[in-house]
């Protein structure tokens, strides 16, 4: 018996294409990424996904990268503690990693996120977003400056989020 969620597949494919295009042209992809995350929950049985949470967590890190078939090796730490689900090799052009509330500092206090990343092929671009209680913020973005040489495909990014809003 076909599921009515299958009718969401064309919307999913369209949003996926828009996300990849946004990354190519250096446009902010946060809203597209959020829409895809919402669809991922509904389509979990029909499309592959790296991490699908049943409900939106208090804080979530979202990666989007191009090309989507590029493998990303990732080690993610929040406040010096490894983030569950934030370690491994991922493909698919996007990854959502919920940060357990127990790892976050009290409201109004700055949190530190360290991402140790390595793209396993050249020509990549990425954006790193944080969603805290529905408020999305671009934390970092980057591109492969020399696709023919692997010297810039491995790097560490330290970013901060939360704290007092100015």
TrEMBL record:
Which species is this UniProt entry from?
A: Corallococcus coralloides (Myxococcus coralloides)
Q: What is this protein called?
A: Uncharacterized protein
Q: Which domain of life is it from?
A: Bacteria
